[in-house]
Amino acid sequence: MNKLTGKLDNPLANKSTQELIIEGAGCASCVGKIELALKSIPDVDNAEMNFALRTVLVTGQVSVDLLIKAIETIGYNAKSANEASDDELLDEKEIADQKYYIRLMRQMWVALGLGVPLMIYSLAGGPMTVDTTLERGVWLFIGLLCAAIMYFAGKHFYVGAWKSFTNHTANMDTLIALGTGTAWIYSMVVVFFPMALPEMARHVYFEATAMIIGLINLGLALEVKARGRTSDAIKRLIGLQAKTARVVRDKKEIDIAIEQVLLNDIVRVRPGEKIPVDGMVTQGHTSIDESMLTGEPMPVEKFEEDEVVAGTLNKSGSILFKATRVGKDTALAQIINMVKRAQNSKPPIGRLADIISAYFVPVIMITAIVSALVWLNFGPDPALAFAVVSATTVLIIACPCALGLATPMSVMVGVGKAAEAGVLIRNGEALQTASKITAMILDKTGTITEGAPKVTDIVIADNNYTEEYILTVASSIESGSEHPLAQAIVDSTIEKGIDPENVTDFHAIAGHGVEAVFNDHKLLFGNQKLMLKYGVALNGFVAQAQQLAKEAKTPMYLAIDKKLAAIIAVSDPIKSDSIEAIKRLQANGIRVVMLTGDNRATANAVAKKVGITEVFAEVLPEDKANKVAELQAQGEIVGMTGDGINDAPALALANVGFAIGTGTDVAIESADITLMRGSLHGLADAIAVSKATLRNIKQNLFGAFIYNVAGVPFAAGVLYPFFGLLLNPVIAGAAMAFSSLTVVSNANRLRFFKPQDH
Amino acid sequence: MMIINLIGLALIALIVWWFWLYKPEKAVDSSIESITIVVNNGVYQPSRIKVAAGKKTTLHFFRKDGSPCAATVIFPNVEVSEELPLEINKSVELPPMPSGEYPFHCPMKMYTGTLIVE
Questions:
Q1: In A, which residues are within 8 Å of B83 by CB distance?
Q2: What pLDDT score was predicted for residue A7?
Q3: What's the rounded Cα separation, in Å, for the pair A736 and A397?
Q4: Do A401 and B110 touch (CB under 8 A)?
Q5: Is A443 a catalytic residue?
Q6: In which band, very low, low, confident or very high, does the pLDDT at A442 lie, cut at 50, 70 and 90?
Q7: pTM surpassing 0.90?
Q8: Residues of A in contact with B80 (CB under 8 A)
Q9: Which helix (H) or strand (E) holds A257?
Q10: Could you tell me which residues are beta bridge partners of residue A330?
Q11: Are B66 and A168 an interchain contact pair (Cβ–Cβ within 8 Å)?
Q12: A157 vs B contacts (CB less than 8 Å)
């Protein structure tokens, strides 16, 4: 592998040795078949397969795509092992940044080596004019030295400017090249043809050229350093990945790089080791610390058939698990990918800066020409010198790089900061909108409450039935339902040693309950609406149900042959930190609304406990989105928080959809923002980070805009007629060099932001 | 003075035409030849690339420029952004896109290119 040293002169050059990972090779006889298929390619010199590792090493000048195709045609899958992993790419990026930094610093010293002495000479009152033959000779030598410096320390600006020009684009290089080039050419004209210019205009600006190149290189170098720190969050996420995995192959346990773990491999994880890939436990029992992904501090018990996630830490037992997702498919890899993607996306606030950046450079070039013409036509003597200085200064001070950096730098830090708090933000737009939310809708079950209800009461309505029979009937009908309340009933009956039986003609009626046939009896199980729909007489039991509901329990009616048999109450405990998190939202001026399909009395009881005054109860799943629209019609910017699957329409319609999930594909892909831990504090954290990021972006944009808006007219000389002030090109160069640094440093301040201690 | 003023105005006209009005016609067709977009000296080369509509597209990038801005390429319309390692080929996969022109650029928009989907 040549990931770090693979410096290719020709980008399309093929490597002489390539390593491929083979999938689907289950028997030793596959080895010969694969080797033969590869060796039959004309340019392949040799192919050797390591069956234990499922890798094949191929030598020869042939493209990796061709090798993969050859393997696929004989029925296997292959992928290149030469693809650098995330942490290798990160190491490589750091090495490249370091090299670039050293180069820029070297160029800076070379340029300032000439610029600083000249500057000191000029400030000390040394004449910068060309009047005598000796002065011509000295300045010619300095001019040639300056040209050498322009080549060695500033070549990249001139090449970049030329390439951009031929491509019909203009960028920062264009301005630097034009500014320093103008100053140097004018100075050389003074040296060669002093007599052609008025005496007062025989001034040279070699110090400006050298200083500007030096200072801009210094600014870029410091920016490289500061930028490195903005990707700390990604570094930390990548650092969660294990480097090796112990897999069972050919009845032996071997350690291999995680890139070589194949789907369905059996992986061994011992206490204290990280889970290398996603999988399902096949043997053993352990507790796993998932806090690095979810922020949840308590370790989670894992038994056979439970899922384990790459990057989490095995605390106690030794387990074997089957790899279900490897490489780029693991949840951690997807999270890293999503954070990277979001870090590079732009919130709407950045679009204005984008539009300005796109037109900025040519506008500045025109401004410089106009400024020079005005000085030439109306300026005092030496008008030519003033024209050159003002045009050069306008070009140098107007670099739009600070403007271009203002938004992405803050987004990069803000999205990373959120990821550290277990909040995955999908893109810059979600980040911006979250800061403006005025109303937050919270789903009850699983969001405010644990989502793991338990049976608390059984009220027998017909004395022909015993409690045990009622539970048997209820669990039999509910074992076919996926509703969380149904699961509570099934679990309760199993705990009591009662097994559910089979039912027939099972139908779930959305927002009402379920119906089925059990031992020739027609069963109805659900809320009051279901009973009314089928004309079941509730007699005096409604009051009892309402009493249960007032205690934050959910009463469900069971009717057998259309006669009420019992009321079963289920209660879902409120999450320990829901009350505090909701208070945080309300303290931020957000209108918090609870939304639930549950009955009104239960919903009100839960809402009262957590301090919510507005409740949408008994809402059918298809009406959840309507409630979002209702609030939007009232002028609210609505956030909707749910579990990401059955709340999907409402999540999609809300201005920002928050999915509470544990990193499942659906949650990551569907929501604008995913809260990796169950706590609602994640919601308050997301909004706090979003507000802080927007504030930071505004500071950056303000700084960059003010700098250009004020800097350009000053450089053009609008203050000269009133105060006699004209900006020195060297000062403009220094200001420009440090403007980007200021923006990056301000964005870095966000790294120290804490949403709130809790 | 008149001549200088005229030259100045001509330069302004040239800038307006060269950077804003001129529309390059030429685009490299990715279905005919395998393209590697070289990222160097402030430009993507080639910077106008034709790709097929409604099909997944893979573009190959090769970054030679060490500047941090060049290290990321962004396709804003399809929410794709990728890190480009220095001097290593990097494939960037794009989802199927309807016909139209799609810009791509570095975070500071110093490097700019256009995908012509047809």
A1: 89, 93, 340
A2: 32
A3: 5
A4: yes
A5: yes
A6: very high
A7: no
A8: 341
A9: strand A252-257
A10: none
A11: no
A12: none
Q: Which of A197-206, A230-239, A245-254 is least confident?
A: A230-239
Tokens of A686: 């997301």
Is residue A325 less than 8 Å (CB to CB) from chain B?
Answer: no
Rg (chain B; Cα; Å)? 17
Distance CA B26, CA B45 (A): 12
List Cα–Cα distances, A226 to A128, A232, A315, A420, A663, in angstroms. 37, 11, 37, 20, 31
Chain A residues touching residue B112 (CB < 8 angstroms): 169
Say which of A165, A227, A361 has its CB closest to residue B68: A227
Segment A235-290, tens digit of pLDDT: 777 877 888 899 988 778 888 888 888 888 899 998 888 899 999 999 988 888 87
**What's the CA gap between A15 and A6, in Å, rounded?**
9
Query: Please, are residues A486 and A493 in contact by the beta-carbon 8 Å criterion?
Result: no
- Does the CB of A369 have a partner CB in chain B at under 8 Å? yes
- Identify all chain B residues contacting A400, using CB atoms and an 8 Å cutoff: 108
What is the dihedral sign for C-alpha A423, A425, A428, A430?
negative
Identify the residue with better confidence: A111 or A329. Answer: A111
With beta carbons less than 8 A apart as the criterion, state whether A253 and A320 touch: no
Residues 6 or more apart whose CB falls under 8 angstroms from that of A458 comprise: A467, A470, A471, A566, A567, A568, A569
Residue A256 tokens, joined: 């291999």
Residues B51-74: what's their mean pLDDT? 85
Measure the CA–CA gap between A92 and B86, rounded to whole angstroms.
8
- Between A449-453, A694-698, B91-95, the lowest mean confidence (pLDDT) is in A449-453
ipTM: 0.84
Res B7 pLDDT > 80: yes
Q: Is the CB of B93 inside 8 Å of chain A's CB atoms?
A: no
Q: Is A89 on the interface with B (CB under 8 A)?
A: yes
CB A671 within 8 A of CB A658: yes
Closest residue of chain B to A401, computed from CA coordinates: B108
The verdict on a CB contact (< 8 Å) between B8 and A372 is yes
**Closest residue to A365, CB basis, from B1, B15, B112:** B15
Who among A167, A362, A365 is closest to B43 (CB)? Answer: A167
The catalytic residue among A86, A443, A598, A672 is A443
User: A416 in helix, strand or coil?
Assistant: helix
Q: Record the tokens describing residue A66, joined without a space.
A: 């061709």
Please name every residue paired with A594 in a beta bridge, in sequence order, or none if there are none. Answer: A442, A615
